[in-house]
Write a structure and sequence with these properties.
Blueprint (H helix, E strand, L loop, with lengths): L8 H8 L7 H15 L8 H21 L16 E3 L1 H6 L1 E6 L5 E6 L8 E4 L2 E7 L6 E3 L2 E8 L1 H6 L1 E7 L2 E7 L1 H6 L1 E4 L15 E7 L3 H19 L1
Parallel strand pairs: 1-5, 7-11
Antiparallel strand pairs: 2-3, 4-5, 6-7, 8-9, 10-11
Helix pairs in contact: 1-3, 2-3
């Protein structure tokens, strides 16, 4: 059976709510918002809609990569034709997924938390292998989840209390200087839940200094205006 034609750039922009001109940062932010709205656990969301969002993201990311050869080409979204592809949030919390059976029927499957790639779920007489794929925001490594987090440069250098939005909710973390130097924090037991032979995973935060150029620039502009008004 012939594969579906690739999604067009225009359709990809419409799915993510982007105009014809956008930066890589705009693309990442648009994907995060669209993925939240399309998630199967949310009202109005669904597995097919979520897959469309992911496909649109990779289509636009690939288009940008072809213009900037320094960028690393994105990993193609290639769900297994006879398997069940799920995202990290479903593996973390459980939820529903839709799947098209070989006879053309579409079924809605309730999935438990803790699934990993290689696990199998049964739908009537059919046994489907699970393929767990990460997203641009969440990387899956075995039982563990990895996410990126921005931290104020001063806090990263000196340590301190930080608030991080994670897949399992907002977490308050005390950042030591050593962790700031490594730029890595491990939240024990906050990764994929234990299930069957699988152990309880951890959540790793890869830390990066937050961009403060725009903030500093705005502060300097206000300072110059204040100085000019004072001298007038």
């Amino acid at each position: 059976m012939a594969s579906d034609p690739p999604i067009s750039l225009r359709a990809s922009r419409e799915i993510l709510g982007l105009g014809p001109f956008f930066t890589p940062g705009d693309l990442r932010r648009a994907f995060r918002e669209a993925a939240k709205r399309a998630h199967p656990d949310r009202s109005g969301g669904g597995s097919e809609r979520f897959r469309n969002v992911v496909e649109a993201y990779h289509r636009l990311q690939a288009a940008q990569s072809s213009q900037d050869r320094i960028s690393q080409p994105p990993v193609a979204w290639t769900p297994e034709p006879m398997g069940l592809t799920i995202d990290p949030l479903i593996a973390l919390q459980g939820g529903f997924a839709e799947h098209k059976l070989p006879d053309g029927r579409r079924v809605r499957i309730r999935l438990p938390a803790g699934l990993r790639s290689g696990d199998k779920v049964r739908v009537g007489p059919v046994e489907l292998p699970v393929a767990l794929h990460g997203t641009p925001d969440i990387l899956v490594r075995g039982d563990d989840l990895w996410i990126n987090a921005s931290v104020a440069p001063r806090t990263l250098a000196e340590g301190g209390r930080i608030a991080i939005e994670t897949p399992v909710g907002r977490r308050i973390v005390w950042l030591t200087r050593k962790a700031g130097e490594r730029k890595l924090v491990r939240l024990v037991g906050q990764g994929l839940p234990a299930r069957g032979p699988h152990r309880q995973g951890h959540l790793f935060l890869r830390l990066a200094p937050a961009q403060t150029d725009k903030i500093d620039s705005a502060a300097r502009t206000l300072l110059r205006r204040f100085a000019a008004a004072w001298a007038a």
